[in-house]
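Need residues for this backbone.
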């Protein structure tokens, strides 16, 4: 077999291996999705009227439309933590050492984790999106092309965060440490424009919310789904995603090679 065929075959095998726990133990995946779903319901039904009043008197339905893009990206951040934990578990339990003695393509081990995590992230986005639609979210102004662009953005962002999470898992001594190191992927959306406009934040806090990967991604997704302006956020989102994906890839593969020595 050619090197490419071997890589595809072994990556498919590793992908099936990494998806088995999600099928056998769906509660593990559902626990990761519980946080964004609960936040969506909390901010809509508990804080929705107060938050919308601070945004110029918009009603709860308008606030649902505003908050859903941020929750969708937060779903990706919370789901990819599972990739960090899974990689750290494989490293600490010795299964990676066993794989290295087998005639398999070396990169397939990490690729299986990455593709599996991206698929779970998109499934999580679909689930949370269904909950959002059920409570009143509508995107009537988005064209088919904008929907496709929104989906592509979600996949690209999931790929970037997954590679970062895999790097965190490779660098962690155990699953608990990996889970803790990946917590910023949940915390960063909370200090972004996900729940309130940046202009409404204190002046000293605005740069923290502005200069991070989640804010331009949220604003781009919001523009695609709701027809608002995107400005430079689209290019910033692509730059952040490509940069994070490259960083995570080189970090993960270098750690993987170092552990082989």
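Answer:
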């Amino acid at each position: 077999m050619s090197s490419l065929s071997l890589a595809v075959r072994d990556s498919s095998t590793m992908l099936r291996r990494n998806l088995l726990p999600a099928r056998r133990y769906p509660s593990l995946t559902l626990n990761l999705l519980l946080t964004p779903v609960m936040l969506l319901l909390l901010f809509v039904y508990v804080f929705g009227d107060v938050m919308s009043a601070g945004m110029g008197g918009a009603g709860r339905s308008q606030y649902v439309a505003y908050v859903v893009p941020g929750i969708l990206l937060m779903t990706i951040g919370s789901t990819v933590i599972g990739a960090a934990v899974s990689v750290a578990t494989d490293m600490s339990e010795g299964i990676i050492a066993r794989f290295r003695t087998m005639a398999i393509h070396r990169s397939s081990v990490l690729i299986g984790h990455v593709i599996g995590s991206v698929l779970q992230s998109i499934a999580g986005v679909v689930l949370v999106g269904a909950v959002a639609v059920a409570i009143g979210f509508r995107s009537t102004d988005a064209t088919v092309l904008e929907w496709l662009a929104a989906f592509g953005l979600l996949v690209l962002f999931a790929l970037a965060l997954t590679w970062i999470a895999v790097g965190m898992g490779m660098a962690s001594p155990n699953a608990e440490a990996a889970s803790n190191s990946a917590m910023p992927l949940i915390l960063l959306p909370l200090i972004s424009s996900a729940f309130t406009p940046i202009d409404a934040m204190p002046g000293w806090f605005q740069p923290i919310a502005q200069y991070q990967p989640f804010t331009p991604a949220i604003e781009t997704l919001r523009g695609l789904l709701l027809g608002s302006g995107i400005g430079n956020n689209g290019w910033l989102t692509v730059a952040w995603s490509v940069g994070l994906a490259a960083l995570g890839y080189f970090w993960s593969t270098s750690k993987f090679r170092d552990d082989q020595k």
